[in-house]
Amino acid sequence: MEKITPVLLAGGSGTRLWPLSRKSNPKQFGNILTKNSLFQETVKRLTSKEGIIFDKPLTITNSDFRFIVLEQFKNIKLKPGTIFLEPEPKNTGPALLAASIYMYKKDKDAIALMSPTDHLIPEKEKFHKLILDGMKKINDGNLIIFGIKPSRPETGYGYIEIIKTSLKNSNIKKFLEKPDLISAKKMYKKNNFFWNAGIILFRAKDLIEAFLNYHPKIYKYVNNSFERGKRDLDFFRLESKAWSKAKNISIDHAILEKIKNVTAIPFNGKWSDLGDWQTVWQEHKKNKNGIAAVGNVTHLNCKNSLLKTSSDGPHLVGIGLEDVIAIATSDATLITNKNNSQDVKFAVDELKKQKLHISEFFPKDYRPWGWFEVLSSSKFYKVKKIFVNSNASLSLQSHKFRSEHWVVVEGIAEVTINENITVLSKGESIFIPLGSKHRLHNPKKNYLIIIEIQTGTYFGEDDIIRYEDNYGRIKK
Known about the structure:
Helices cover about 20% and strands about 30% of the residues. It starts with a strand and ends in an 8-residue tail after the last strand. With about 475 residues, the protein is of the alpha/beta class. Strands 1, 2, 3, 4, 5, 6, 7, 8, 9, 10, 11 and 12 form a twelve-stranded mixed sheet that branches. The protein has a six-stranded antiparallel sheet with strand order 19-20-21-28-23-26, with no helix packed on it. A four-stranded mixed sheet has the order 13-15-17-18, with helices on one face.
């Protein structure tokens, strides 16, 4: 059995599941339905089982998510494989081509399985059987895409029209964009229309050949970006100048709609892209009244509603609600009719116009050494909770506009201030004068938590001058 390399697409920043999904930490990394994130469930789904062999994955993401991706792998105790960092988003076409070039240089017959990382596919054995069916048809230059049997008329998905539904002959007649409701109802009644799941099985050499035939300029720029790319710690950074010249285009428009040797295989298992809160409500376990209640929630006389709080959110109380989505986090609350859940993205656009931080960012911000969370802020001060991983260190740095006061609340802290090193235990504190070179280090196997109180005239994250850093963040 040949090895299959999962190519995981993890650079998206969806807004339809706001406030639990935001630009700084989108839905693929959040705990939307289960204990594990959708990204982690995707990784676990694409691990080797009897009859199918998966190689280590190749993840494509961006610089903002690089340490989140590492943390996601670490938390499920799986090795991350190769992680590509895109200089800027260019859709699935260039991303998949870059992965193919990398794989082809290692193995001329390499096989890739492109997979989004924000989809729900709970029936793992059925999905593996689908891949094995695809492997039977992958030779002779074929690219295999997987279509989902529709469970309802859906206007939020793209469709594939195929000539026949049998495995032996399921050639694609047409790709269709997201339809209106009337068209979706017509397609739902027929048996040769399938949702486009965005999952593709192919040999790297066949995709490269297709780009050379149909988009030689895209191949040129992506290949140049790959050749000029550089290793950066656990990541591979594609070169930005050549990458910026590549056309922003999906793999569907770039290749799949043009070539003849592309085959669709229907999948009759359970699948969802969790594209909005109504879909999340549909997938959640519900009581006899159709209530999905998650987190710190109390409800009375409610029907057909989703009431959900994040782990750090407030207690949410619903009374007499029907067909309502109510989502609460520590800093934002969404309340909408289920039928309007597709419009959440427009609300996020409005928050952006108002330049509100909550539109794109969480209070918690992930870093290579751990994370910090803003607890309180004003014009004159900012208070943070800082979590430092085992044996991790922040950079040696200084600030022009603020001083800091650190209080240890969990663990042991090794603090450097200029030439002096001080070890602090739980309950002890230290003052960091403005302009001093300082560093925080966790020397123990357990985590470290401190409370940081900043005072000064400016508290932006760009007020950092780095002198030494373990994570390559010093600009040269």
